[in-house]
Design goal:
By secondary structure, the protein is mainly β. It contains no helices and ten strands. It starts with 10 loop residues before the first strand and ends in a 7-residue tail after the last strand.
Length: about 110
């Protein structure tokens, strides 16, 4: 299976944010996200394990019980299941998020 990025459309992912679901199966999913400078990915949790990779930009990654950390292009983060987390975008940001299992709520 293959997925051409140009064939996928962005969907709203909250104020100042859009997401594009790319390849997925019931076990794994990758999603491209774009945030405007100043956008906030509100604190939330979900039962999925998540890895995020910063493609472009600078953000502040927040995780409940941890010190906030600034991440830039090339950096990544790991979110265990059910951990409260969020981001604040210092600049415009492009992310690649990978979830296991797939996020049925994104389809």
């Amino acid at each position: 299976m293959h997925v051409l990025n140009k064939d996928r459309e962005y969907q709203s992912a909250g104020e100042g944010a859009v997401r594009k679901v790319l390849a997925y199966s019931k076990n794994i999913m990758n999603v491209e996200l774009q945030f405007e400078a100043g956008a906030v990915g509100a604190m939330h949790s979900h039962p999925h394990e998540q890895i995020g990779y910063v493609i472009e930009g600078t953000l502040i990654y927040k995780e409940e019980g941890e010190k906030d950390v600034t991440l830039m292009a090339g950096d990544s983060y790991l979110v265990p299941p059910n951990v409260v987390h969020g981001i604040e975008c210092v600049t415009s940001v492009k992310l690649l998020d990978i979830f296991t299992p797939m996020r049925e709520d994104f389809i």
